[in-house]
Amino acid sequence: MRRISLFSSVLLSVVMYGHALAADGLIQRQSPYSVDQTVARFVERAEDKGLTIFATVDHAAGAQTAGLSLRPTTVVIFGNPKGGTPFMQCAQTVGIDLPLKALIYRDANGQVWLSYNDPDYIAKRHDVDDCAAVAPITKALAGLAEATVARGDD
Questions:
Q1: 26-149 fold
Q2: CB neighbourhood size of 138 (10 A)
Q3: CA dihedral 56, 71, 45, 23 (to 10 degrees)
Q4: 152 pLDDT band (50/70/90 cuts)?
């Protein structure tokens, strides 16, 4: 009976919040778009918000060059010194986690996901839970993720 309750709770969480259980510190949002479309939407919306796109890394293409296969998997590296610098002023070691990254991939079931590191998790990792920079970064990332996966706004 307990397993059913736990499963029901997880399922309800996925349905209500659009994310599934992930590795510690990751926030995941389901995307109704392909990986390529989700990447393009993310980049466009990030740039519209004044963020710099430093790089995109196509892991599937990299795997192909090694003669291996991998489902579509792309990392977008992005950021803005106005947000990142205050976070690093709380602890310079935060710099190892910056610039921020978004992972966009298709899982074994065909579902596309947008994942990113939870700023609260990064703050805890660097022992700066009270850093004032975390709340605005958290809010901005949540808005960016929501705008990326929103339906029908093209």
A1: TATA-Binding Protein (3.30.310)
A2: 16
A3: -90
A4: confident
